Amino acid sequence: MITENAFAKLNISLDVSGARDDGYHDMVMIMQTVSLKDTLRITLNDTGRFRAKCGIAYLPSDGRNLAVKAAMLFLRSVGKCGTGAEIEIEKNIPVGAGMAGGSTDAAAVLRCLNREFGNPLGREQLLELAAEIGSDVPYCVIGGTALAEGRGEVLTTLKDIPDCRIVICKPEFSISTPEFFKALDRIRLRRHPDTQGIISAIDGNDLQGICHRMYNVFEDVEDRRLNAVRDIRRILLGAGAHGAVMTGTGSAVFGIFSPGASTSEVCCSLEKEYGFCRCVTPVGGLL
Ligand code: C5P
């Protein structure tokens, strides 16, 4: 059995620079891996059949599950056509949160199968395969702190962000990514994040400089569900976060605190009110 961690991602910033002809959008995002993780246990078989088990009834167990899709694609691309896989996913990353839960499971499958088979695919080939599965999957393969452009697959590794505590809270509703991209196309964006300013702050180990510039253009979408996002942000800032922002297309919100900050009280009260809250730390590059 092969075991692999699949870490959640957060968007320190998210900008959309335009809609593309292929139905996607051009993005400019600063991504960060954090210690909240799913755990995958993969057992290969010679029946050629694939199945995922994750204890969440509405998640698919067949090829529609991104982890299964990743295993199928990988094994086909390295010529192991008779090999199948059972993938058990211990799911801790909430679904529909903007934390790339499905994408990071797929990325973990690619990373560990490539390792298991003696690295038949080089980094670029592995990332190309990842991009066939989903826009966030290439980033999830490499992890750490990175600038993601294009559909999300054009990656530049950045320096690790300074040590900090990150409190993530997800309200009970989830947001559909395609729906929010469509909603974004209908509005005029009020502002854009200062991506270059954040990159300079990361370069200079300036946690406050990063936090003061965090911004996600999806927060401009007019949707009354985002009132909960604003409420959570206010609570996080009131508890001493240096900055707080929604991740991806939501619905999770996170606040960044100093490494020594006491966050247990705000975590408890957010969990009681919104159902999900965790205190995590940043994780460096994975590949
Ligand atoms: O690539 P992925 O399958 O994760 O994308 C899901 C949906 O999100 C796409 O079908 C598209 O509606 C939207 N999307 C987009 N532009 C991106 C990434 C995703 O419009 N760069």
The N- to C-terminal Cα distance equals 21 Å
Give a list of the ligands. Answer: cytidine-5'-monophosphate
| Bulk shape | globular
* Strand residues, percent: 25-35%
Walk me through this protein's architecture:
With 287 residues, the chain is α+β, with helices and mostly antiparallel strands. The protein is 33% helix and 29% strand. It contains 9 helices and 12 strands. The chain has helices at residues 66-77, 101-116, 123-133, 137-142, 177-185, 195-203, 207-213, 226-238, 264-274; strands at residues 2-19, 25-45, 50-53, 84-90, 145-150, 154-157, 165-170, 215-216, 243-246, 253-257, 276-280, 282-283. Strands 1, 2, 3, 4, 5, 6, 8 and 12 form an 8-stranded mixed β-sheet that branches. Strand 1 (2-19) and strand 2 (25-45) form a beta hairpin. It starts with a strand and ends with a strand. The model has no long low-confidence stretch (mean pLDDT 97). Bound molecules: cytidine-5'-monophosphate. The site of cytidine-5'-monophosphate (C5P) has 11 residues, from strand 2 and helix 5. Cytidine-5'-monophosphate binds next to strand 2 and helix 5.
Write a concise keyword list for the protein shown above.
287 residues, alpha+beta, 4-stranded antiparallel sheet, binds cytidine-5'-monophosphate
Write the layout of secondary structure elements.
Layout: E1 2-19, E2 25-45, E3 50-53, H1 66-77, E4 84-90, H2 101-116, H3 123-133, H4 137-142, E5 145-150, E6 154-157, E7 165-170, H5 177-185, H6 195-203, H7 207-213, E8 215-216, H8 226-238, E9 243-246, E10 253-257, H9 264-274, E11 276-280, E12 282-283
Parallel strand pairs: 1-8, 3-4
Antiparallel strand pairs: 1-2, 2-4, 2-5, 2-12, 5-6, 7-10, 7-11, 9-10
Bound molecules: cytidine-5'-monophosphate.
The site of cytidine-5'-monophosphate has 11 residues, from β2 and α5.
